[in-house]
Amino acid sequence: MDDETTPNASATGILQCLRMLAAEAAVLRLERTFIALRDAVRACEAEVLAGKLVTGSADGVEALLPATLRLH
């Protein structure tokens, strides 16, 4: 990656990555990591939703709140 250019990461892209990491932590039974990622997902969801409400772009097409992540 070129240090001079920074990738344009969207909040929803970051949210998707956090969800994938949380799912992987659950599979690997990394309880503390899973809990921390779950909390980060919730915080990011709140920010994304707030941003959509402020801009008026909450269209309901994108499901912001996934099924509850659980550690098996």
Q: Would you kindly provide a written description of the structure presented here, covering whatever features stand out?
A:
- The protein is mostly helical and 72 residues long.
- It has a domain at 11-55.
- The chain is built from 2 helices and no strands.
- α1 runs antiparallel to α2.
- It is elongated, with a radius of gyration of 14 Å.
- The N and C termini lie far apart (36 Å).
Brief summary:
The chain has two helices and no strands.
Task: Kindly list the characteristics that best describe this protein.
single chain; 72 residues; mainly alpha; 58% helix; elongated
Give the termini distance in whole angstroms: 36 Å
Radius of gyration: 14 Å
Shape: elongated
Which structural class best describes the helix and strand composition? mainly alpha
Number of helices, counting only DSSP H or I runs of 4 residues or more: 2
Kindly report the average pLDDT value: 75
Order of helices and strands: HH
How many β-strand runs? 0
Low-confidence stretches: 59-65
The biggest sheet, with number of strands, parallel, antiparallel or mixed sense and barrel status, is: none
Q: What is the percent of helical residues?
A: 55-70%
Strand content bin? under 5%
